[in-house]
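Purpose: get a first structural picture of the assembly so the mutagenesis plan has something to point at.
Setup: two entries, given in the order below. No constraints added.
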Amino acid sequence: MGLTKEQIAQRISKELKDGYYVNLGIGIPTLVANYIPEGINVVLQSENGLLGMGPFPEEGKEDADLINAGKQTITTLPGSAIFDSAMSFGMIRAGKVHLTVLGAMEVADNGDIANWKIPNKMVKGMGGAMDLVAAAKNIIVAMQHTNPKGESKLLAQCSLPLTGIKCVTKVVTDLGVFEITPEGFKCVEHAPDVSIEEIKAKTAGRLVIAQDLKPVAI
Amino acid sequence: MSINKVVASADEAIKDIPDGATIMFGGFGLCGLPENCIAALVKKGTTNLTCISNNAGVDDFGIGLMLHKKQVKKMIASYVGENAEFERQLLSGELEVELIPQGTLATRCLIAGYGIPFVPVLAGVGTEVAIGKETLSRNGKEYLIEEAFDASFAIVKAWKGDTMGNLIFKDTARNFNPLMAMAGKITIAEVEELVQPGELDPNMIHTPGIYVHRIFQGSHYEKRIEQRTVRKAN
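Result (C-alpha cells, whole complex):
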C-alpha cells in the first residue's frame, strides 16, 4: 500500500508557496486545490482564460459561460481576472506561472514526459499540455508509479510519443517523491509503508536514493 | 452617421461562404460557440469545409452538428475527445485532422491579427508536432517556426456588440473568440445583445470593430454545459 490519490495531492500541496500562481491539470493534480496549506495564498490559473479559479458553483448557480479547462462549471473569486487564450498561454510561456502540476503516462529519468497519445488508439489531442511543459519552469508530475499491468511508468526512455523533453522537475507517485537529477530519479521521500526494495523493483529508469531519505509526511 | 456592419440574420451572414472554405470558429469546448451561425451552416449544407477551432464539439452540439452532416473535410484543433461521430469519421478516413498545441493555436490566430507572419515557439520541440517544421536556434534553444493562420472566414460569438462591430465577451466564453475575430479575412460576429454606437464604454471593448465585418444579434442560445459540476449550498 502506497499513498492514495488524495495523499499524493496532499504531498504536492506542500510545494505551494505564498503568492504562487499555479496551473493544475486534470485528475490527481486537480485534488491539490483541496489541500492548500493554511496561511498560503495561491491563485489558480485555468488555461482557457482565468486567473483566480474558485470552487464549483452552488447547485442552480451554474453558468455555461464560466468553465475551467476541464470544461467543468466553476466560479470566480474576488480578484479573479479573465483573458483570452493567447494571453493565457502567453503568461505560461513567459514563465509567470510558478508551478504546473500534471498527470503523465510515462516520465523518463532525464525529465521527458509522455501524456497525450497512445499509438493505434483514438487520439484526442494534446490540448495545452505541450505548451505547458515547454514553458513552465517548475513541473511536478502526479501519477501512479506503475501502469495497470504493473509496469514502471518511471523509465530510462519514454516509449510513448513525447509531450515535452527534459522538462519535469519532480514526480510524486504512490511510492514516493522523486527529483529529476543528472543521475536520474532521485528518491528523496518514500511512502511510509513502502520499502526501498519495492521502489527499486518498480522503477525502470536510473534511480538514486537520497542520503537523507525520509518518509513522506502526510 | 457611422459604419454599419449589421446583417439581418445568421443565414445572411454566412450565405457567401463557399464549399471548400476555411472557417475559424471561436469557443472552448461548448463555451462561447457561435450557435446561430453553426445552425445556419448546417441548414445551408455548405460542405468540404476546413474548420479551425480548439475543439470539435460533441456529437449533437457545436461543430459536431456539421460533422454529423459530413460538411467537414478537415479539422484543425488542439483537443477532439468527447465525440463518437468524429472518432468514426477519423478512423474510417472520411475526415482529416491536424492537431496543434493549444497555445500555438491561439498564438497563430493572434499573430494573424497583429500582422506578424510567423513566430518561434518552444511547444512541440522534440515531439512529433515538430516533424516537417522549420526550426530556429537562439541562445542554445531550439524553436519551431509557426505560421499565422490564413482563413477566409472567422465566426465568433460575443456577449455584446454594437453596429460598428465593437465586441465585449463574457467570462470564459471569451477564450478563442477575440483571437479568431482578429484572424479572419471576413469576420462574422453573433452577439447576445446588439446595441447602438456609444452604448458600449470604449474602455471596455475587447475586440475593436475594425476586425469585424458582419454582426447580428443571435437568438435562442442553448449554451449547453459539457460538465455540470456543483457543490452543496452552504
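Helices of chain B lie at 10-14, 35-44, 63-68, 84-91, 102-114, 177-183.
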